[in-house]
Amino acid sequence: xxxxxxxxxxxxxxxxxxxxxxxxxxxxxxxxxxxxxxxxxxxxxxxxxxxxxxxxxxxxxxxxxxxxxxxxxxxxxxxxxxxxxxxxxxxxxxxxxxxxxxxxxxxxxxxxxxxxxxxxxxxxxxxxxxxxxxxxxxxxxxxxxxxxxxxxxxxxxxxxxxxxxxxxxxxxxxxxxxxxxxxxxxxxxxxxxxxxxxxxxxxxxxxxxxxxxxxxxxxxxxxxxxxxxxxxxxxxxxxxxxxxxxxxxxxxxxxxxxxxxxxxxxxxxxxxxxxxxxxxxxxxxxxxxxxxxxxxxx
Length: 298
Ligand SMILES: [Zn+2]
Known about the structure:
There is one protein chain. This protein is of the alpha/beta class. The protein has one domain: Arginase, Chain A (3-Layer(aba) Sandwich), CATH 3.40.800. The protein is built from eight helices and ten strands. The chain has helices at 24-35, 59-70, 86-105, 135-145, 162-168, 210-224, 254-267, 283-297, and strands spanning 4-7, 42-44, 74-77, 80-82, 111-113, 151-155, 174-181, 199-204, 232-237, 273-277. The strands form two sheets. An eight-stranded parallel sheet has the order 2-1-5-10-9-6-7-8, with helices on both faces. The longest helix is centred in the first third of the chain and has 20 residues, at 86-105. The site of zinc ion has 7 residues, from loops.
C-alpha cells in the first residue's frame, strides 16, 4: 500500500493577517517535511469547482464566500479572515481532499490532504474558527457518492469539530468520534451530545498523560465501530493536541499519531483512509506530527 499526499500551491497564499496563528508557514513546513520522506509522492491537485461545495454547504454560504472574494477579502468573523488568495486556497484545498478520496477509494493506498485553511469548525451555512468550508465532511460525502455509504470521521484536533458534528449529527450513515480539550473553545462537544447515536465525543481536560488521551480516544473508537463497520475513514487530522501548542493544553507527541494511525489501520484493514489537515500551530512540531501520521498511512 502506497500513501499519496495531495496539496495545492494556493494553500500557501491564504493569509489571515499578521500574528494570526493559522499562518502560511504551517503548510510550508508540512510540505517540506513530507517532501523529505522516502516513497511519499506529492501531487498538486486540480482545484474544486464552487458547485462542489454545495454537497455540504448552503447556497447562501457559497454566495457569502463568493462576495467576500470579489471584494478582495474580508472578515467572516473575528478570526476567520479571507484575503485575495483565500478563495483559491479553499478551492485548491477541497480539490486536494477530493483527489485524495479518489485515490484511497480506488484501493491503491491511503491518502493525506495537506491543505489550509482547515475545515472542521465550518458548518453548512457558516465559516468559523479559521475554517471556510468543511473539508472532512466534503471528503465523507465524496466517499458516499462513490458508493461507500458508511463513513467514520475521527477528529483528533484539540478543538471540538463543532461544524462537522452539526453537519452529520442527524445522519446515521456517518459516525463522528472526536477527542478534544474541554472546557475549551468552541465550548461544544460534551459527552452527552450523541446525535442520532452516531456522535462519540471525548472531552478531556488539559495536562493529562498522552497515553490517557490515546486510550480514551481508542475506547470511543471501539464503541463507535463495535456493531458498525465503516466503508471509509476520514481523519480530521489536527496536530494542535501536541505538547507546547499555543492553542491547546494536550500533551501528545508525534509518536502518538503514528500509534493511532497504525491502530486504525489494524482495526479496519480494508477501509480506505483519508487524513485532512486541521490545526497545529507550531510549524516545526506540526510538520513532525504530519510526517508521523503519513508514514503510518504508508
Ligand atoms: Zn484545533
